[in-house]
Write a structure and sequence with these properties.
There is one protein chain. This protein is mainly beta. It has a single domain, classed as Maltoporin, Chain A (Beta Barrel). It has 6 helices and 41 strands. The strands form 6 sheets. The chain has a 22-stranded antiparallel beta barrel. Strands 5, 6, 7, 8, 9, 10 and 11 form a 7-stranded mixed β-sheet that branches. A 4-stranded antiparallel β-sheet has the order 1-2-3-4, with no helix packed on it. A hairpin with a 3-residue loop joins strand 12 and strand 13. The protein is globular and about 85 Å long. It starts with a helix and ends with a strand.
Length: 785
C-alpha cells in the first residue's frame, strides 16, 4: 500500500485544481499565539464574557476581542464546530476548547475534525475541567467519561497488563498518540497534561505499536507544548496522609524571533497511603523544545523521565472482606513492614515533524524511543484454591511465599503520514495516508520462594510458614527468591520477547453539502511476535506472524441544526502480549458496531448518546501466574455524555454508562470448572456515572471565587470468572472551593466527603479486593506569571 502514497497525493492535488477551490487552509501552528475570543458586545442574548481563567492564560496569549462580525477571529475552527457565543474560545496547543467542551479531537482521526463530524463517541477532558475539579491524578480525571474504569491508584509494576477498562474491556493508556508499554513510571502525574482524549472500542486504522493495534479502547494523554509567550507556574498541593506535591511549569521563548520555544514541567508526589505500611514517591520531568518558522514547518522534541516507587500492594482476600465469619482490617498491608519498595520507571524521547507544503498538502512524522522497567517484590498469601481468595487452613490462615517480578522493555516507534484537503463541487475531503513501524523488546522473570510450603506439600516437613489474617503478624522477613532456597525456589516464567508491528493505512473523510459526513479507511496490519520462554522444562520459542486488513467506516448525518445521527464499524488486532503464555497464542481480534446521536441544543447543551456492541476473540483469561485459556467475549451497552454551559458562571457535566460484558462461549477455567456462556466478566460494573457542577462568581460579587461539587457512582462488580464473589455498589461525593486571580491560584477540595466505605475487585493472583479511598482533604496554592 505504501508504494501508492505519492500517486494518491497527486490525485488529491489534481482534484483541487479541477475544482478551482482550495477549500481548506493550512493547519494553524499551535506555537503561534493562541487566541481567546469573546462574543461581540451588544449582541442580543449574549452576556459579557468573563476574563479567561488562569488555566486558559497559561496556554493562551493575551485575549483579543473581535468587536464586530465575524464573531470569531484567529485560526480557523474545524469545519462544522458549533460554538457557544456566550463563552470564549481558547486555542490551546492541543486544539480549541470552550470551557469543559473541546471542539476537536486529534486522536480520533489524526486530522483537525470537529467532534460533531466523527462517527464515534469521543470524550475529551480538557485542562479547565481537570483544574476545576481539583483532580490529583489522570485516573481520577478519566472518571468524567462514561464507561471508563481507570487504574486503581495503588497498582505499581505489572499486576495487570492493561488495567484500564473501557466498555467492559481492557484498554491502553497512550501518551501523545503513541502506546506506552506497561504504562510505566508516574502514570498519574498531571503537571504536563493539556487534555485527555478517550476513544472507545477498536481504533486500529491509524495506530499500531506495542503488541498491535488497539482493540478495547484508548486513553490518550496529550502533553503540554511550548507557546511563544513567556509564562509559568510554581505551586504546591498538600493533603491528607502527608500528601505533598510541589510542581512547576515554565514556558520560555529562547530567541527574539520566537522560532525556538522551550517548556519544561515537573512534579514530585510523596504521601502515605490509607493502607498501612505503604508510602508512595513518584516524579516526572518533561522538557520540550519546539523549532518553527511560524509558517510551514515545526519540529517538536519531547523528553520524559518518570518514576513511581512504593511497596507492592496485593489487596485483600474475598474471605475476610466480602465473605467469611471474620473481617480483615481494611487498612491491612499483607507482608512485613520492612519489605523493599517496588518501582516502575521510564525514559523517553519523542520527535514530531510537521510540514505544510501548500494549503492542500501537509505531512507529519512522529517517532519515539523509550526504555522502561519495573521490579515488584511482595510476600503473598496463598490459599486453598491456588489463589489468594480463600484460606489454606480455615477459618483464617493462609500460606506465605516471597515473590519477585522483574521486567524491562526497549521500544522504537515511527509513524509518518501525508494529508491532503480538497473540495469537489459541493463536497469537501480530507485524505490521510500513512504507515507505522514499532519494535519492542521485552524481557522478564517471575520467581518465588515458598518458605517451606513445598516441603510441607511434599510431606517432607510439618510446619509451613503461615499467617492468620484474623490476627495478622508477619515475622518472616522478605528476601528476594534465589535458587539457594532449593525445592522452595520456583521460576514461574522467564521470557525474552520481541514485538514487531507494521502497518499502512489510508483514510478518507468527506462532507457532502455540509450535512452528510463519511469516514472510510482500512489498515493493512502485520504482527511479527517472537516469545521465548525459558522456564518451561524445555525452553520454547513461540512465533506469531499474522497480516490482516482492518477496516473502519462511519457516517454522520446532520438531521437539523444541532442534532446528528451516526453509525460506525471498526476492527482491531493485537497479540496477547505483555503476559505469560503456555501455548502459541493467536492474535486477539475485535470488532465494534456503534450508533448514536450527537446533539448541541441552543449551543449550550451538548453531548453524545450511543449504543454499542463489541465482539472479541482469542482473549486471554489470566489467573494466578499465567494464562488459563483463550476465550470469546462480548460487550454491549448504552452511554450518555453531556455538558451544559449556559453562561460563564455555570458549568455542568454528566455521564452515564451501562455495560453488559459476558463470556460469549463456554470455556474451561484453570480449576477444571466449565464457565458457561453468558457469565459476566469480572471487574465490570453494569452501571457507572458521574455528575459535576461548578459555579464561578461574577467579578462584582466574589471576584475569583468558584464552588464545585460532584458525585461518582458504580454498581456491583464480580471478582472472579465464575461469578462466585461480588462487591457492592457505591458512590462518592466530592466538593471544591477555589480562588483565582492573574497571579494567584488556590483551591481546597474534599474527596469522598461522606466517608463511603466500599470494596472494588483487585487484580493479583485471583480473588482479591481493595478498599476504596476514604475521605481526604487537599489544598493547593500556586503563583503564576
Amino acid at each position: 500500500m505504501s508504494r501508492h502514497l505519492p500517486t494518491l497525493c497527486v490525485v488529491a492535488a489534481v482534484a483541487v485544481a479541477a475544482s478551482q477551490s482550495a477549500h481548506s487552509q493550512a493547519r494553524p501552528d499551535p506555537t503561534l499565539p493562541p487566541v481567546v475570543v469573546n462574543p461581540p458586545d451588544g449582541k442580543k442574548g449574549a452576556r459579557p464574557a468573563r476574563r479567561a481563567s488562569s488555566a486558559a492564560r497559561r496556554t493562551a496569549s493575551p485575549q483579543r476581542t473581535q468587536p464586530a462580525a465575524p464573531p470569531l477571529a484567529g485560526p480557523p475552527l474545524p469545519a462544522g464546530a458549533i460554538v457557544n457565543p456566550n463563552l470564549p474560545v481558547t486555542w490551546t496547543t492541543a486544539g480549541p476548547v470552550q470551557g469543559y467542551r473541546a471542539l476537536s479531537a486529534q486522536s480520533a482521526t489524526k486530522t483537525d475534525t470537529a467532534i460533531e463530524r466523527i462517527a464515534q463517541n469521543i470524550q475529551v477532558i480538557p485542562r479547565q475541567l481537570i483544574d476545576d475539579q481539583g483532580a490529583i491524578s489522570v485516573s481520577e480525571a478519566a472518571l468524567n467519561a462514561s464507561n471508563v474504569q481507570p487504574v486503581y491508584p495503588l497498582i505499581v509494576g505489572n499486576a495487570e497488563m492493561y488495567p484500564i477498562k473501557i466498555r467492559g474491556f481492557s484498554a491502553e493508556q497512550w501518551r501523545d498518540g503513541l502506546v506506552v508499554p506497561y504504562d510505566a513510571g508516574d502514570r498519574d502525574g498531571l503537571v504536563n497534561v493539556e487534555r485527555i482524549e478517550i476513544l472507545k472500542g477498536p481504533n486500529a486504522i491509524l495506530y499500531g505499536g506495542g503488541a498491535g493495534a488497539p482493540i478495547g479502547g484508548t486513553l490518550n494523554v496529550v502533553s503540554k507544548l511550548p507557546t511563544d509567550k513567556a509564562s509559568g507556574e510554581f505551586g504546591v498541593r498538600l493533603g491528607s496522609r502527608q500528601y505533598w506535591n510541589p510542581f512547576f511549569d515554565i514556558n520560555q521563548p529562547l530567541n527574539a524571533d520566537k522560532t525556538a520555544l522551550f517548556r519544561i514541567t515537573g512534579e514530585y508526589t510523596g504521601n502515605k497511603s490509607f493502607i498501612d505500611v505503604i508510602e508512595s514517591k513518584r516524579y516526572n520531568i518533561n522538557p520540550t523544545l519546539t523549532l518553527t518558522n511560524h509558517e510551514d514547518t515545526r519540529l517538536t522534541i519531547q523528553g520524559q523521565v518518570s518514576k513511581q516507587q512504593q511497596q507492592a500492594y496485593q489487596g485483600l482476600p474475598v474471605y475476610g472482606t466480602l465473605l467469611g465469619d471474620f473481617r480483615v482490617r481494611q487498612d491491612l498491608f499483607i507482608g512485613p513492614s520492612s519489605i523493599e519498595p517496588s518501582y516502575s520507571k521510564t525514559e523517553s524521547v519523542t520527535a514530531t515533524l510537521d510540514h505544510q507544503f501548500n494549503p492542500i498538502l501537509s505531512a507529519n512524522v512522529k517517532a519515539r524511543w523509550s526504555q522502561s522497567s519495573f521490579d515488584q517484590m511482595s510476600q503473598n498469601i496463598w490459599g486453598g484454591d491456588f489463589t489468594g481468595a480463600v484460606p489454606a487452613f480455615p477459618p483464617s490462615t493462609w500460606l506465605l511465599q516471597n515473590m519477585e517480578m522483574y521486567q524491562e522493555q526497549k521500544e522504537f516507534t515511527i509513524n509518518p503520514s501525508l494529508q491532503a484537503k480538497f473540495a469537489i463541487g459541493p463536497s469537501t475531503h480530507t485524505l490521510l495516508v500513512g504507515g507505522d513501524y514499532s519494535r519492542v523488546s521485552d524481557r522478564g522473570a517471575m520467581t518465588a520462594d515458598s518458605l517451606g510450603n513445598n516441603c510441607f506439600l511434599l510431606g517432607l516437613c510439618l510446619f509451613p510458614v503461615t499467617v492468620d489474617l484474623a490476627n495478622p503478624s508477619f515475622t518472616v522477613p522478605y528476601t528476594r527468591p534465589s535458587p539457594a532456597a532449593g525445592i522452595e525456589f520456583a521460576k514461574y516464567f522467564d521470557f525474552q520477547n520481541s514485538y514487531e508491528t507494521k502497518g499502512a493505512y489510508t483514510q478518507l473523510q468527506s462532507s457532502f453539502y455540509d450535512r452528510v459526513h463519511l469516514l472510510a479507511g482500512v489498515r493493512l496490519a502485520n504482527l511479527d511476535i517472537s516469545y521465548t520462554e525459558s522456564a518451561r522444562p524445555v525452553p520454547t520459542t513461540f512465533v506469531t506472524d499474522t497480516t490482516r486488513a482492518l477496516p473502519r467506516a462511519g457516517l454522520v448525518v446532520d438531521l437539523v441544526q444541532g442534532l446528528s445521527a451516526y453509525a460506525s464499524y471498526s476492527e482491531g488486532m493485537k497479540w496477547a502480549g505483555f503476559t505469560t503464555a503456555v501455548t502459541r497464542p493467536a492474535p486477539e481480534l475485535s470488532d465494534q458496531v456503534e450508533a448514536g446521536l450527537k446533539f448541541n441544543i441552543n449551543k449550550q447543551f451538548s453531548g453524545n448518546l450511543s449504543v454499542f456492541e463489541i465482539h472479541r476473540t482469542n482473549v486471554p483469561v489470566t489467573l494466578a501466574i499465567g494464562v488459563a485459556g483463550l476465550t470469546m467475549q462480548k460487550s454491549k451497552g448504552f452511554e450518555a455524555d453531556a455538558i451544559w454551559q449556559p453562561d460563564t458562571n455555570w458549568s455542568f457535566l454528566g455521564s452515564y454508562g451501562f455495560t453488559d460484558a459476558v463470556f460469549a462461549e463456554p470455556f474451561l477455567d484453570f480449576t477444571g470448572a466449565v464457565i458457561p456462556a453468558g457469565t459476566k466478566l469480572p471487574f465490570v460494573p453494569q452501571h457507572t456515572g458521574r455528575l459535576w457542577a461548578n459555579y464561578k462568581f461574577d467579578p462584582g460579587a466574589l471576584p475569583g471565587v468558584s464552588l464545585g461539587a460532584g458525585i461518582t457512582f458504580a454498581s456491583s462488580q464480580y471478582v472472579d470468572n465464575a461469578n462466585l464473589w461480588q462487591t457492592a455498589g457505591y458512590y462518592t461525593v466530592d466538593g471544591k472551593i477555589g480562588y483565582e486571580t492573574d497571579h494567584v491560584r488556590a483551591f481546597l477540595t474534599v474527596k469522598n466527603l461522606t466517608g463511603e466505605k466500599y470494596f472494588v475487585p483487585y487484580t493479583w493472583l485471583g480473588g482479591q479486593v481493595a478498599p476504596g479511598a476514604p475521605r481526604a482533604v487537599y489544598g493547593q496554592i500556586s503563583w503564576l506569571y
